[in-house]
Amino acid sequence: MTAAERRHIPMTVLIGVAIALVVTLLHATDRLRLLERWWFDWRAKYCQHFTPPATDDIVHLDIDDKSIATIGRWPWDWTVLAELLDEVGRAQPRVVGFDVILADAPQEGADALADAVERLGNVVMPIAGTDRKRRRPIESAALELLKNDLELTQDQWAQALRDQGFDVVQPGAAQMFIRSRETAMNERIMVELAASPGAPPTLDDLRQRLLPRTDPLVTGSPALRLLARQYDLARTVSSLTRFSQPASDGVPPIRAIDIDQPPVFSLTSRLAGTGFVDYLPDTDGVLRRVPLWIECNGRLYPQFSLSLACLSLGVDVRDVRIERDRVVVPRGDGTQIVIPVRTEPSSADPTQENGTLLQVPWFGPDKWQRMYAPRRQSDADKPSAFEEPAAPRHIPITAVWDVRRTHERIATNLRSIDKAVGVLTLQPEEGGAFRFGLKPAMADTYFATPFDQRTHEQRTAAVAAALQEVRALRLEEDFLAIPETDLDDELRLARDQLIDALRILRTVPDETAALRVQVDRSRALLAQSLRDRVVLIGHIATGRLDEERTSIHASCPGVVIHGVIYNALVTGHTWTTAPRWVGYVLTLLLGLLATGVSAVWAPSRALIVRTGLLAAYLTI
Fold first, then answer.
1. What is the distance between the alpha carbons of residues 411 and 417, in angstroms, rounded to a whole number?
2. What's the pTM value of the predicted model, to 2 decimals?
3. 371, 50 in Cβ contact below 8 A?
4. Which of 26, 347, 417, 579 is most buried as measured by Cβ atoms within 10 A of its Cβ?
């Protein structure tokens, strides 16, 4: 090093230290967030060499474009959903995640779907809500007034606020009154339900307690309609508390929401679990992290995928431990799954914090349809280096629908067979349908058994007996031998009935047998794909609203994102983020190291080292 170079060392060190401090300050104030996000996405997409294979637990039943075209426009009738769930249940899945919001019950089908959910016994359905905003002083005062007296008119309420020194200005006051009364009604009802968990009050009980001055003869006032709506919502949310934990002092700050889209009460009482499906994209619209818990009315509710994972592992979600930097899932064998999480300032309100944030460990190619495809190790660094999975992970729900429709065809055929047997064998009735009465005793015994209890052997024997009697009496030959001109109306009807019944009994049983083989084969294939697996049912159809941009996908359905999170939770393949202070220290240390290298080494060698340090910094 020459004397001139040594003279430049102090200035080089001063400039280097200044740059290191500036970069550290930028890092500490989130001014480098854009670069961090870009690098996070780049690593998620291209640095998957050591990513372990995904769990084989997950199978998706997709509501896709073909399903909409085949089954009909969404929303489907709930009786259709019930049939689909019943057929899925035959395959004996471990857990069924039904990622569809069913917050409004239709006129028909609600009981059928609730019964299907109960028969399965392992269905998890989502809840959704809106972020709870910090109330202004006037909003808090407005709410308290109505909680104390739900029968205040808007004018009385506004005057009471003015008496407290608030400036009530129209037209915003009307909207505030409506929102405040809805919230006050809900909170009062929740208090009443919590006070009597074993014998919850009825709607009439609540009317007497909350609206005591309302005339008992009045049935359609706005307050009564609001009471009915909020009673349904509160009763539903209250029934979901069995899938939640109380919010204790030891947990980190949790994102607070108001649940306004739970499943209807007839479903919630039969569910095996629930979880919220609201995501938390960054300000650039890309989903990189999700909170594993949310808070509502002093209760903590799990994320949908966490609820699925707990049910799949046989863990009560209420036993999960929530800490500031981790969520611990205890397993029945004494082991535990530790999920690293972090707490960050809320992007919507920097004064608030969101805890239990999980960095989503994305995997697979940029086409989510092939997310579960294994990576070829020969060229594993290429984004396109993925093979086809050994078993299909995305199955259109029409595969289930087709089985049900084929089963319906079988039932229709069986009814046709029974009708034909009745035409030939039952005793004629005066004024009734035409019958030949060939074997009335056998027919009476056969038809005494209800339709859905008649066995294949009974039906086969009845068909054989009817055909044998027709052959013995040569009925077919005799009718066909009669010239058309000699047939009166009664004989012509008898001939047509005979020919139609014989056609059915000679062809439909074989057709039905072929359909049974088809159903058995289809059910075997479904069982092979679904048995003892976690089945996720959700929308992937074109134009869906439930989609997000991710680190590797331009658009990804929400139900697929649940699969990614579930995979991380049950496999333990999660991304651990170092505490923020570690980033600051590393930034400063690497900056000082680069400064020292630049000060004492030759420019060419220093450039190589600085490039390596930059690469190390970005990788970390």
1. 10
2. 0.83
3. no
4. 417
